[in-house]
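Give me structure tokens for this 234-residue protein.
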Amino acid sequence: MNQIDTYANKLEGLPGYGLAIDWINDKLGDHFETKDPFYVEINGKRKKRKVPETCTKETQKAWKKIKKRAWLDDRNFFGCYPIDLGFGLAPLLSLLPVIGQILMWATHMRLITIATQQMHIPNSLQAKMHANIVFDILISLPPIIGSLFTWLNACSTRNAALVHTYIVKEELKRQTQFEKIENQFANEQFGYHQPQQERFNDRINYKERLAKPEQSYQRSGDSSSRSKHADSLV
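Here you go.
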């Protein structure tokens, strides 16, 4: 395991490594898109879709509310999650003449309200979600067949997927920024002008010192000041 950490630290020290990782993360963030907000397949097993574990508890709770709301609107008009009846509240409301579309709008708006108040989603995302609602109401206007179109469209499911995509991308950006700050701190701590191999050894010893505070920080020269700094972090 220590050998793997050594190689990992050596890889981090290669010229351009940080830029390459940032470029990959940006590309992954740009192309990531949630299709199914309810489930995800991991190692051949179907599991409930969650937000990243690094998200705040408030975000995790808000996501559960959004997911249950979308389930009520599109999958189970009784709201019993995760029992799938294949028919939600929105298609039923679309059967009502005139007032049905008003009730549909109010039903779909509930999901946007949760996302706005508890997740503070940007205006651009809100506009996309409102556009989905308008489209869903328009296709529901034809009698009878409009309800079929609404059922197939699954507006709240689409909006929940948009919210999940936004959360994952924002969390990816936050983690990338955190790694940049962490790398900057490590470089400032151990100096840019040290020979490359010395920086590798220094960072490895530094991590071992944090993991085992009872061991002294061993390095020639400025060892006392570095040991005090490591003790303060522990």
